[in-house]
Amino acid sequence: MTRTKLYRWSAPLLLSICALLFSIVPVSLHAQSSDASLAGTVTDAKGGALPNATVNVKKDSTSDVRTVKADAQGHFSISGIASGRYTIEITAPGFSVNSRVVQLVAGQDQDISIALTVGDVSQQVLVEANSVGSVAAALAPMDALLEARSARTEITQAFIQNFTSPVSDFGEAVEMAPGTFTTNGNGVGLGQSATFFRGFPDGNYDIDFDGIPFYDTNTPTHHSWAFFPSQFLGGIDFDRSPGTASTIGPTPFGGSIHLLSKDLSPVKNVRGQFAYGSFNTYLYDGEYDSGNVLPNHKLNYQIDVHHLQSDGYQTFNHQTRNAGAIKVQYKLSDKTMITGFSGVIWLDANTPNFSATRCQMFGATSAYTCTGTLAPFAGSGLNFLLTNNSDPVNYLDNKYNSYHVPTDFEYVGLHTELPHNITVDVKPYTYNYDNSELYSNATPITEQATINGSKTYMGLNIAPCNIPVTKKGVTAIPCAVDKYNSYRKYGETSTVSQTSRFGVFRAGMWYEWADTNRHQFPTDPLNNWADQPLSNFNEQFWTNSYQPYVEYEFHVTKALNITAGTKFSHYNIATKQFADDGKTIGGLGTNDPSTFITNSGSYSAWLPSLDANYRIRSNWSAYGQVATGSVVPPSSVFDYAQNAAGIPVKTLPKQQRSTTYQTGTVFKLKRVTFDADFYHIRFQNSYSSVDDASGEPIYYLQPSSITKGFEAESNIYIGRGLSAYLNASVGRATYTGTLSVNCAPSKCTGAPITVTAPSGLWVANTPSDVETEGVTYQHKGWDVAVFNKRVGTLYQDNAAYHNQATIDPFTLTNVYFNYTLRTGGHFDQTKFRLSFNNLFDEHNITGVKIAGSALTQTISANGTTYTDPFNTTGPTPISGGDNVSILPGRSVMLAVTFGFSPKK
After folding, report:
1. For residue 392, what pLDDT is reported?
2. Same domain for 663 and 596?
3. Is the Cβ–Cβ distance between 68 and 76 less than 8 Å?
4. Are residues 344 and 438 in the same domain?
5. Beta strand pairing status for 845-849 and 805-807?
6. Domain limits for position 27
7. Is the residue at 221 inside a domain?
8. Phi then psi for 471, rounded to 5 degrees?
């Protein structure tokens, strides 16, 4: 009964509803016909489909926003849109936001394609981890990318902020990477650090910041304490290879450490950090993020300022640093972005100009004896007690050793997208290094020093001030040195790329001009730092660097990419050197400090590269590479005895060359990541010279060496935020080949001098093996880690090819505790950090500068006797006068970062 009544009641109602719907449909259809529709595709920078991107469509001058998601092929569509001007904003996790303004016309359909670029290293790693569903990759402290074409390690901003000391520098940020180790005798971030990988020392690899190479002008080395502290860094792309043709810089020889600035935050916030730790170290840091401001989010900027001060681990090695950086991005249009960066550092230090000896560190032992008045190593520093009758104050006290080093680094980058998928990037830049240094001259010497014609000192130059000392026929005041090194550089990098269905074409140029002023004068600190008239050296020089390049990344199939290209590396230098006291070029026949000579030289090299990446599966790739690199010679090629007319270099050295072959694989599962590579590198070592009868130097490259080995790294996700990280490398770097010198007819018969390199001798500072073991916990605001670095046996030389000193294996253990508030409130992202470096307080020797002269022997060739650079007599006996470097003692840092941001 009830059902019948309901049926009778429902039928008229349903008929009425249907009639109403049918009456509405024509009206709706008619209305839609006057509207527009929008469809499009979201891709990555290479043109690949980007699934699940968010598309926001906002009509100008209204608050009306429609949002859709792209499908698995990156497609999206929206219909029924009223005509008008719209802003389309595309977002995807790990990618920079991209937007486009379109004018929609009634009754028309519009189809667009929008490409997103990866924002930074952290985002790139996260994107790849998400794309293959790998939790292990997302939590890896360091990782390789599936798209890698060489042995690369991506070090994210999260790693730098959580698993390094708050005062660390860029060298210490890479020290846990495969095959790599970094040393700093004064403590983390408190002095000049030195980084080695695959046996390549500083000066044999590039370092750049946001794609701009930076390095010294006299040698292509780097100052870790004066440029780019961790507060400036947003990530590091560490490529242990010469790279591709588009890898620019003066030394694409062993590899490149690509430093990246911080990615700008879309949210406004303020951060203030205070840190205190061992060696009376203080750090004060403030950061402001503007977030996206102005209409259409056109402007975004970030400002960071900090102050660091520390007594340092070593006695009288105080450090003070004041620094600031600003990064600005302004969107001129939907396709054009301007980015500006400026970083300024003001550094003052009291670093002594020499390392401690074995006697100072450890006192006398059965292996060697000690003489003199130097106190042994004491407590947490080096306690030098050098005094004399004229100056009862410590020679190494602050007023006798000082560095004043202001630096600045600026660039403006223009990025624009043109029709036909053409992209243009231009980045002019300038930077400056200005080092004024005064230091006491109480340095170890190995020859006799005669004072007043009678009294002789051995071992240390500790003569009273104002008393001339004759050494090797040169008379000088021994008390102190006034040293200056300053350069200003101007340059630009530019790239034009065009993306098509076949691949990506790139062509570009790096150009740089530099002006350098350097001098070193003996000076008297007890007489107002009065300089001696003649310098040890006094010079100006000007350098030009050009590197045009071209390469093509050919997308052979969806799985196979092959990149081939070449660059032309050209470098020239022009010098102006003034008469000196005989230490560099001599008195030029006049002993007049205003007399000078000029020299010049040019160096060129073609550097081709070829690599391939094959995606075996979506989560597994393999790559192969052959690439060439070079090193520009230092300015010291002109440092030889000359007369007033000048003696030109008869044969300039060539650029050192390297050829790297490597193959590797990258594999990512949900709980495991694994990458490994084999490498074989043949590289030319530095050069020596012989003089012909007129004194003209003839430079020649010394025999090559072969470095080969295996590297592997893995992150294993255990569960609940807990992971185990491992990397290991084993290798061998030995000298090989022959030495060949074409001598001048006036010196010998003209036939080349050929000497075979002794086999089995290791390249200095190349460890037999390097391992890193780590455990990380990253969960619910906690970031906790333990990292242990072991560096195997390595050798050091007093000159080439001797293996005179053996450095035993040493180990460094670091521990980090971080807790971050993630409440979404005003104090969101407030962080507490506790770090321990060298947890077990190890003091292993990490380096030795051998006392005494280099071991040599003579050879006869073409009727003439020469000094043979090779020596196979074995290691030099340990001496108490050897300068040694050790691991700095345990340091503890506690830091609190207070965050304040608008409530979400």
Report:
1. 33
2. yes
3. yes
4. yes
5. unpaired
6. 1-33
7. no
8. -140, 120
Question: Rounded to the nearest 5 degrees, what angle is found at the Cα of 628, between the Cα atoms of 623 and 629?
Answer: 120
382 residue type, one letter: L
Q: Rounded to an integer, what distance in angstroms lies between the CA atom of residue 814 and that of residue 893?
A: 12
Closest listed residue to residue 487, CA positions, set 535, 538, 541, 438: 541
885: left (phi over 0), alpha (psi -120 to 50) or beta: beta
Do 41 and 176 share a domain, yes or no? no
Tell the residue number behind the tokens 């990156």, with chain if given: 74
The CA-atom distances, in angstroms, between 826 and each of 456, 895, 899, 901 are 71, 20, 8, 5
pLDDT of residue 462: 40
Q: Check whether residue 144 and residue 95 sit in a common domain.
A: no
**Burial call 1-39: b when 16+ CB within 10 Å, e when fewer:** eeeeeeeeeeeeeeeeeeeeeeeeeeeeeeeeeeebbbe
Q: Domain end: 213, 244, 261, which one? A: 261
The answer to whether residue 753 is domain-embedded is: yes
The per-residue DSSP string of 426-439 comes to EEEEEEEEEEEEEE
Token digits for 740?
């060949």
135/55 same-domain check: no
Count the residues in the chain.
Answer: 904
Do residues 356 and 238 both lie within one domain?
no
pLDDT at res. 463: 43
Q: Work out whether strand 109-116 and strand 36-44 pair parallel, antiparallel, or are unpaired.
A: parallel
Please give the Cα distance from 796 to 597 (Å, whole number). 36
Backbone angles phi, psi at 779, to 5 degrees: -160, 130
User: Residue 299 pairs with which residues in a beta bridge?
Assistant: 293, 330
| CATH classification of the domain holding 185 | 2.170.130.10
Which segments of 354-482 does DSSP mark as H helices, in order?
A: 358-362
- Asked if residue 227 is part of any domain, the answer here is no
DSSP SS3 for 13: helix
How far is the C-alpha of 174 from the C-alpha of 155, rounded, in Å? 7
Query: CA angle at residue 880 from 874 to 882, to 5 degrees?
Result: 65
The CA radius of gyration of the chain, in Å to the nearest whole number, is: 32
Count CA atoms within 13 Å of residue 673 on its CB side: 30
381 Cα distance to chain centroid: 29
613-645: per-residue pLDDT in tens?
999 999 999 999 999 999 988 998 888 888 766
Q: Are residues 111 and 194 in the same domain?
A: no
786 within 8 A of 809, measured Cβ to Cβ:
no
Answer yes or no: do 483 and 384 share one domain: yes
Quote the CA–CA distance of 736 and 706 in Å, as a whole number: 7
322: in domain: yes
Looking at 792-890, which runs of residues are DSSP E strands? 794-796, 805-807, 810-820, 831-837, 845-849, 857-861, 864-868, 883-886
What share of residues in the chain are helix, strand, coil (percent, to 5)?
10, 55, 40
Give the total number of structural domains in the chain.
Answer: 4
Give the pair of three-digit tokens for residue 827. 């104090």
Cβ-count burial of 476 within 10 angstroms (0-12 exposed, 13-18 middle, 19+ buried)? buried
- Both tokens of residue 72? 């698995």
Report how far residue 255's alpha carbon sits from residue 179's, in angstroms, rounded to the nearest whole number. 12
pLDDT band at residue 447, thresholds of 50, 70 and 90?
Answer: very low
pLDDT digits (tens, 9 = 90+) for 85-112: 888 888 776 566 677 777 888 877 777 7
What is the distance of C-alpha 869 from the center of its chain? 33
Q: Do 559 and 582 contact (CB within 8 A), yes or no?
A: no
